[in-house]
Predict the structure of EAL domain-containing protein.
Amino acid sequence: AKSAGRNRWMFYTPEMAEQMVQRREMENSLREAIKQQQFRLVYQPRYGLNSSRIIAVEALIRWEHPELGLLMPDQFISLAEETGLIVPLSEWVLNTACRDTQQSLEGLSVSVNISAVEFQSWGIVDRVREALRQSQLDPARLEIEITENATLWNPESSLELMLALKKLGVKLLMDDFGTGYSSLSYLRNFPFDGIKLDKSFISGMPESDSANTIVENIIGLGKAFSLSITAEGVETEGQLQKLITMDCDETQGYLIGKPLSLTALKEQMNALDAA
Ligand code: C2E
Ligand code: CA
Ligand code: CA
Ligand code: CA
């Protein structure tokens, strides 16, 4: 019997059995996908407001499933986390992103998303070190995006892991800032270089006075802690202009560019340079 506390699911229903089978199948196909390299990375530009140019990209994973077609991370990352397959997956992501950046994205930094579950063991430090070694990428050009729940599970050991990563020379960004529980003063206890302000804050801008005030305050406090501030999900010119007046450092979002294949991104940047 499952979750008898609420008396709703006293016994496994046929639907639940089917869900378990589907999950098992998905897990197997994820395992197979890693072996057969069915993944690819797309890169979304990050735009510096001081320099008015693309200064970095964020690597985002896609799964080209042979039967189901293109799958987005929301459809498989949590399964990868639960099954431990996130480890070989993130190894592939780190190696590919570092190699692509070193070979094809001259002058740009790259950020990679690392799951909170990976912050429970030292393996992540080895994977980052190995990706840097294999690619020969300057560590200062690699940024690791971590969501705040990574630090909440076990503050002491995640602090040690972060310090070890910093020692390798990479930068640390707190992703989706504002969606969890931590405050900026809590952030001060961890060696973050910057925060990425969640898109839910940006979507009300510039019309909503409260959205504007909140974002302006977070930017101000972040600056007081010497953090670089990236606004995520910037979709309109109005939002961009407002963020410039607030002295935000960087924006990312559909206005500047959607996530693109490496080839498409390079074409777009060449076209911009030519213009
Ligand atoms: P995230 O790290 O917050 O990434 C930003 C997400 O917002 C991306 O979705 C991106 O395509 C989308 N986005 C960017 N600009 C805009 C915009 O202007 N408007 C809107 N509405 N959306 C925008 P995506 O690629 O589906 O990724 C979803 C999440 O999956 C990511 O959220 C990240 O948490 C996770 N993820 C992606 N790649 C990886 C990976 O390689 N490893 C791990 N562990 N997680 C990953
Ligand atoms: Ca991210
Ligand atoms: Ca984010
Ligand atoms: Ca997110």
About this structure: Residues 14-36 form the longest helix (23 residues). Residues 44, 60-61, 72-74, 77, 90, 93, 113, 115, 145, 175-176, 199, 233, 235, 253-254, 259 surround C2E (ligand 1) (CB under 6 Å). The chain has a mean pLDDT of 91.
